[in-house]
Design a protein that fits this description.
Elements lengths: L3 H26 L5 E5 L3 E8 L15 H19 L8 H24 L2 E9 L2 E2 L5 H18 L10
Antiparallel strand pairs: 1-2, 2-3, 3-4
Helix pairs in contact: 1-3, 2-3, 3-4
Length: 164
C-alpha cells in the first residue's frame, strides 16, 4: 500500500507542475497588452505580473523588503504544511486534500517570487465593469485548499455533540 504522505506530496507536485506549465505557456504566448477572450463578457486570459500577494494585494507597495518578506512567509508556510502532512493518519480527508492543495499552490507562487521577484497571473473573470483581480492556477489551488480546511473546521466532527 502507498504511504498517504507520498500521495499528498504527489498531489502538491502535480499542482506545482500544472501551475508552472500554465504560467510558461502564458509567458511564451501572450503579450502584456494582449487579451484572449474565452467567454466574452465573463472570462479572459491575460498576462499580468503581481509583485504583491494573492489577487494583487500589496502589488503597488514601495516597501523595499516586500519580495524578501513574501518569500520568507511563503517558505514558512511550505515548511509548516509539509510538516503537518508528515502524519497523514491524523488528518481527515478534507484536511488532507486541503493541505496538499495549499502546499502545491504555495510552492508554485514561492518559486516565481524566488526566480523572478513576482508572480505571473492570467485568469481574469469579470461581469461588465466589475472584475476580480487576475490570478493563476497556484492561487486557485490555495483557495480551494483553504476552503476545504475551513469546511473541516466548521463542520461537526463525527462522534461529537453538535454544541451551539
Amino acid at each position: 500500500m502507498v504511504d498517504r504522505r507520498w500521495i499528498a506530496y504527489g498531489a502538491a507536485a502535480a499542482v506545482f507542475a500544472l501551475d508552472r506549465l500554465t504560467k510558461l505557456l502564458v509567458e511564451a504566448r501572450i503579450g502584456f497588452e494582449d487579451t484572449v477572450k474565452v467567454i466574452p463578457g465573463f472570462f479572459d486570459i491575460v498576462h499580468s505580473q503581481n509583485r504583491g500577494v494573492a489577487f494583487g494585494i500589496f502589488n503597488d507597495s514601495a516597501f523595499e523588503w516586500r519580495t524578501a518578506l513574501l518569500v520568507v512567509a511563503s517558505l514558512a508556510a511550505v515548511v509548516v504544511v509539509s510538516w503537518i502532512l508528515r502524519h497523514p493518519e491524523r488528518l481527515d480527508r478534507r484536511m488532507f486534500w486541503g493541505l496538499a492543495l495549499v502546499l502545491g499552490g504555495a510552492l508554485g507562487n514561492v518559486y516565481d517570487r524566488i526566480v523572478a521577484g513576482q508572480v505571473t497571473d492570467f485568469l481574469l473573470f469579470y461581469v461588465g465593469d466589475y472584475q476580480w483581480p487576475a490570478f493563476n492556477a497556484a492561487d486557485s489551488a490555495i483557495v480551494v485548499g483553504s476552503g476545504l480546511l475551513l469546511i473541516d473546521l466548521v463542520r461537526p466532527q463525527r462522534g461529537t455533540a453538535n454544541v451551539p
